Amino acid sequence: MLVFTTAAELRAHAEASRGAGRRLGLVPTMGALHDGHIQLVRAAATQCDEVVASIFVNPTQFNNPDDLRLYPRLPEQDTALLAAAGCTVLFMPSVEEVYPQPTVLRFDFGELERVMEGAHRPGHFNGVATVVSKLFHLSRPHVAYFGQKDFQQVAVVRQLIADLSFDLELVVYPTVREADGLAMSSRNRRLSPEARAVAPLLYQVLAQAASGVREGVGPAEVQARAQAALAQEPQFTPEYFEVADAQTLQPLTAYGPGRGVVLCVAAHLGGVRLIDNVVV
Amino acid sequence: MLVFTTAAELRAHAEASRGAGRRLGLVPTMGALHDGHIQLVRAAATQCDEVVASIFVNPTQFNNPDDLRLYPRLPEQDTALLAAAGCTVLFMPSVEEVYPQPTVLRFDFGELERVMEGAHRPGHFNGVATVVSKLFHLSRPHVAYFGQKDFQQVAVVRQLIADLSFDLELVVYPTVREADGLAMSSRNRRLSPEARAVAPLLYQVLAQAASGVREGVGPAEVQARAQAALAQEPQFTPEYFEVADAQTLQPLTAYGPGRGVVLCVAAHLGGVRLIDNVVV
């Protein structure tokens, strides 16, 4: 596995690889890898000739300085995991390498980011779109792999690709869960044993709500029941629970034929902010 | 000269050309070509193995529907001029080909677009950045050629390239002028003989103002004199005359050592909006 820390190395390698007719897959990550990431790397290794994984804790997508400061960083362990999973190129740049000067342009994704993560984390999706654009330009992938866990992020990246005519395919893999249902997340490492013990409630609430949607319980009632269930556990401070259109991400007031529904939740648990979602 | 009307053709050609190690130059235009455009194509032909010119009157950068409707369109004449100048690929897509669905994302370039063209043409630079991003992704140039005539556009494109790490070089050529000093522009075709006769005043005022800057006349006084000179000709309706920092494009209140100055003007003349600039 090649390890690059400079943009110039990655660019030169991508150009040579594409010139040689090799198919490139990109798995952008912020490190502290878990099975969700590794699933993406394994898929890319099956489908592509080269797998570029990036590890970069992107400061411009963090609205909360503590969240940025406390984000887990495990470069040695990550490197070993990536090599074992079939990654051929690891890109691990410094902040200065990715942002040699402060960024001036700002992205706005309209209604798509006025809800959920976009509403609760101002500037988050501008940071995401900026760093994803940079990584796409530096690594020139044929395919980019993302996890469904960050559902709204996937919607924003899909819009970015369409609106700027990026020449690549977006592939999304389902959320990988622990045996008790907790969605895998790098931030789970920061949970205390007490918090970890109650964390699976987030998915239980989503699964109950999904049953409700399938049974035709209205969106407002599904939301109210989920919020009540979350309120049962005092360790949780819920941020939002939304019953939304799976395409537009806008809150639903009613279900419609052929209209996908996504249930999205965000909650704080022992100082850690967790998100999860289920598509019905 | 190859002529492509679909994004897929251009993408495939660009990929094959880069794979073959050929250096690609891009000259994005809105057609109705003049010597300013042709200068860029000739330069690209000297410096690159392939020259892609695009002709696309981009609707998203027009804030004024009449300006869009009346924008000159001369595809046959343009095609002959491009072939003679050394263009190897002409990309002439439909609006539906470039925008298969409405764009959701919006670019904001902050202070850079709060002045001059950005201030007077709301949404203009979002449209420019969107279409330029698309053209960069479709044609994958090593070098992109722009004219200094659209000074603020060049600044915005330079920022776009830097902020999103586009892997290409931006080359800017000086404004080409008629014998009487009028900056070449596709919109000049729409000037009546009476308007054309007084149009060179725009450059004369800029040249006088540039002399003033060199002689140390303060920015406010330079601006006031230029505005007074323009007001002498009743056919002109001036929009702005700015004495600005050539890097930031912000209005200057004083000159500073090593700080470039750009003089920018916009005025309406017989229903046609003209812009010009001089760097001191």
From TrEMBL, chains A, B:
Keywords, comma-separated and alphabetical: ATP-binding, Cytoplasm, Ligase, Nucleotide-binding, Pantothenate biosynthesis
UniProt-listed PANTHER family: CYTIDYLATE KINASE/PANTOATE-BETA-ALANINE LIGASE, PANTOATE--BETA-ALANINE LIGASE
Documented EC number(s): 6.3.2.1
GO cellular component: cytosol
HAMAP family: PanC
Alphabetical GO biological process terms: pantothenate biosynthetic process
Family: Belongs to the pantothenate synthetase family.
Active site: 37
Entry binding sites for ATP: 30-37, 147-150, 176, 184-187
Taxonomic classification: Bacteria, Pseudomonadati, Bacteroidota, Cytophagia, Cytophagales
Subunit field text: Homodimer.
Protein name per Swiss-Prot or TrEMBL: Pantothenate synthetase
